[in-house]
Design a protein that fits this description.
Layout lengths: L1 H13 L14 H34 L11 H4 L1 H30 L2
């Protein structure tokens, strides 16, 4: 699970996660900023879900040990909330960039 969560974190940071084009590509800078904000805020909500529920999942793992290896399952389950925290940090940076792009697009349209 660590590799999957690490890969997802890198994809969030680099913006290389797959995406689906549901709406047409915005033509203006302002429109692109709004579209990116919607996507990044939606991803932020998922990150918050991973943090909240992942924390409970990790606490559940703390109470268990692997029968085969004897290691505490927290070492595996903690990947979920840590991934959510990393996504939160990277998305905060992306949302700030989107807001700057939005402000620049507003100034450019006047």
């Amino acid at each position: 699970m660590w590799l999957i969560m690490l890969g997802a974190t890198i994809a969030v940071r680099d913006g290389t996660h797959f995406d689906v084009d549901v709406l047409p590509e915005p033509k203006t800078v302002h429109g692109k900023a709004v579209a990116r904000l919607i996507v990044h805020v939606s991803m932020l909500l998922v990150a918050l879900i991973f943090i909240a529920f992942g924390w409970r999942f990790a606490a559940f793992g703390y109470e268990q040990s692997s029968e085969m290896t004897g290691i505490n399952m927290l070492s595996i389950h903690i990947a979920w909330p840590l991934a959510g925290i990393c996504w939160l940090l990277f998305l905060a940076e992306k949302i700030l960039d989107d807001m700057k792009l939005y402000a620049d697009g507003r100034r450019g349209s006047r």
